[in-house]
Design a protein that fits this description.
Layout lengths: L1 H18 L5 H21 L13 H20 L3 H22 L9
Helix pairs in contact: 1-2, 1-4, 3-4
Length: 112
């Protein structure tokens, strides 16, 4: 889900640069919303009791990771060029991977 949300804007940036077409705003925003709706559907389907961050980490770390995700997703929507989008993909994917490891109790919140 998170990879889809990150890779579609990257592809849009590549396409915009190589074809001289205008910004593909609707595609980028649709990918963002599709990712959010898919994550909500998975959470509802598996009846997950809480979010990854809720109650398992201190407030400072939760704020940092939430801000990191927000900046990453904002960058995917508004960045120009393929390689600039790639930097945001790394931010979003690393954060999502670390939170997945935390949720599965493979690492502790101190290791995140």
């Amino acid at each position: 889900i998170f990879a889809f949300r990150s890779l579609v804007p990257m592809f849009c940036a590549w396409f915009e640069v190589n074809s001289d077409c205008p910004r593909l705003w609707l595609v980028r925003i649709a990918a963002l919303y599709a990712g959010m709706l898919a994550a909500d559907a998975v959470s509802k389907n598996y009846e997950l009791p809480s979010t990854t961050l809720q109650g398992s980490m201190n407030q400072e770390l939760r704020t940092f990771l939430a801000l990191f995700q927000f900046i990453g997703v904002s960058g995917l929507l508004f960045a120009n060029g393929f390689w600039l989008n790639f930097n945001y993909v790394i931010a979003v994917q690393v954060t999502a991977f670390m939170l997945t490891l935390r949720r599965r109790r493979i690492i502790t919140s101190e290791q995140v």
